[in-house]
User: Fold these one by one.
Assistant:
Number 1:
Amino acid sequence: MLQCKYYVTQVANEVIEMNEYAKFIGKALHQNVEISEFNNRRILPLFLINGYNYLVLTIQETQCLLVQPKEQTNLTSIRKQILHLKKLTGYTCALCLDNIGTYTKRKLLSEGIPFVILNKQIYMPFLGLALSNNDDRDIPVFEQISFSTQKLLLVAIYERWSKTTLTEAAFKLNVSKMTITRCFDELYSTDLDLIKTIGKTRCFVWDGSQRSLWEAVRTILRNPIIREYRLGEVVDIGKASLSGMSAVCHYSMLGDNNYETIAISKDKEKKYDIIKQPKLPNAEMPEMVIQILGYDLYSDGDIAIDPLSAILTLSNEDLNDPRVEIAVEEILKEHLND
């Protein structure tokens, strides 16, 4: 009996929350809209009952089902679930969202999946409607993030950013606001929902742990190596930081290769004319390996590059080695809180 009472209260709260979407649609279209609870939940599987809020909207003598994800869900899952809902309920379904990345928005548009972004945009092709707030920024889609954005993400993980403004981020990374604007734009174009506008200020927002942020962004992070030199003899270039496998071994109990891997700047690469040094094919054992990285982010007194970048320099072959897999997990446990 108590469970039933809780369920009814939950539905009532959903109606109040989703009523804002209905008001926005009616106001934007200058149309009278009618709303009613979706009372046929018993036909839905449990994961759809628990995964979304529902409201039936009637507009221009057409009914549709407004559906609001309760938690952040990837595009592939949403696409399948919306099609499943339409098949089960017979309603055309429109996603209700508070915010959305540019990449996801364009995918929804290209696939004709209806959506409503509260107070910003309405896309209901079944009604012939596609309205957008003119103030919405047109942010391009980026094929891959820049190294500047990657460095920002790693600093955000290490420093446990929870709500960091654009200005604060520029100060923390000692770069211009223009650089951070581009970084924020790149992140906004992904599905990660890390960039939000609070008032009139754009912020990097994350309320989870370091480990969960690392896992969330891992798929968009790049191998930071721009160039690698496998040399047949040791070159004395003065002070340098451990990189690649040598850095991973520095941060874990794993034994290093018989040669050392280091990272140097582009200036040092040019100064010591590394490109003219005798190089070896991958099949031969080098005397040393020099890596040029796309950004500088050092740790442990500059003895080595930072531990997360060290992990990112590893090849798929390295990562498939059980010993390396254990070392990587050891590093993550040591440097990131769960």
Note: Residues 1-13 have pLDDT under 50 and may be disordered.
Number 2:
Amino acid sequence: MTRGWPHDLKGLREIARNEILPEWEADDETDPTRNWPKDEWIVENGFSTIKGILRRKHDLTLREFFTMIVGIENEDHKWDINDPETVRRANEFLDRSVKYRDWTESTKTTTYHLLNRVFREIGRHFDDSEVALIEMLDNEQNMTTTYDTFVDIMAEIKNEAESDESAYRYLRMFQRYVESLERRYIISSNPVSDIDEEFTWDRDQTGSTPLNDEQIRALWDTAESLEEYLVIIGYVIWGVRRKELPNINRSQINLSQDPVQIEFAESDRKNGSGTVDILFGEQYIKEQINRLSTHSDWGGHLLVDEDNKSQPMDPRDTANMFQDLCERADVLIDEEPATPNNGRAVWHDYNAEAEACLREMDYIKDQDLTDDESPRRYHSQNTEEKIRQMLYLERFKKILPEDVFSEDTVFLRDIENQYQLDEMDWDGD
């Protein structure tokens, strides 16, 4: 009987985790130094179809699939700089961060992608992948030259990045790496500490500290009303601005689109795309629409004025709701309750991480493909966007309770009686 294979990445990932990897790990003849099966093993053991689906539907190699989508760590991060001392210190930076700062493997991998992109540009700048980076950073006689060199290198990365937010992430990770070298007295001074001052950064929330994973989970666990869940989703997961969130109207929401989208008028957005994909929160939208649609004076806004449901909630009240929730959850930034800007900074942060992974995938593909495959050298925009969304959503799946991602779950367990949600039409638009 012919097996029915899923064509979406989520389904393929489940097969990889539940079937392919366990069978490969149980095979006594596999190479114990590898973290995922070779192409030959995939074909010989009846899984060759996955190769074709990945290639035709998603433009992915097996290596990209297992490392980026399945989440298997690459065998000993292969740095794009070959100086032994630089490689040793880079691996130490990652391992020490895992040991002393409780980094997860996914954070370690993302950091590797960010830092390796800078290393790659350093090698390109000098036309030498064996440049002695540690020695260069520690040369006090040439500090001005070193500083100017890294300004030029970061300018190249900034020009190639999808956004200034992403470029800034590359710079900050490199700066943190150099800061760790200085703290450990491996270098005597830090010639790259102020490089960001050389550039103009078009970043939405420059200086806003993003909430960490524990703080996001604390907010979710503390929320008590549908509105509070919506402000968490809106500010942190959707990444909409303080004034935009309460003004979102039912007329802007396309529930028939996959994923669901919110359309903003050009005049409503300071910058950025006029369309926001709703990767998470569709059920919350439907619940709020069902609840508010019972009021004859409802004007269509997801967050409404308590005394006049024909009007949206005042942006100041929405921001205050978020900050009150942060205070109850003990989510503090600089000893003060976090703000919507700190929530939106999460959106920027996670998207920058996803882009770093995508850029690394393009680089891997560039190395893997032969000359006769050069027309397929880069992922299509549609493929990249799907992978970006998947990587972004996976970050939240590591933070939020598992049951909130179940289509069969009524999410607001603790407040059903408050809004009489059990009497609502869950399938209604």
Note: The chain has four domains: 9-69, 84-198, 213-343+409-423, 345-390.
Number 3:
Amino acid sequence: MKVTINSTSKIVRLKSALLLDGIPARVWEGETESGIKVHCFITRIGIDKNEPRYLEFEQELIACQEPTPEIDLYPKVLIL
């Protein structure tokens, strides 16, 4: 499966019995190659520090869009 996602400004906390304080996750949204809409909860993302375009990646990672109304409905804390 191939999915194209875009970073949003929405951040939630993912909580479980093992993670008492939870872990922050940025909500990304996008769609599959066939056009099915998806929401992703990304806690970490990175690349090899030896990647020649590492600084460009860091700058792109900072950019994010406002969440759509669908994403905005997620509560600040999600219990897993």
Note: The first helix runs from residue 54 to 62.
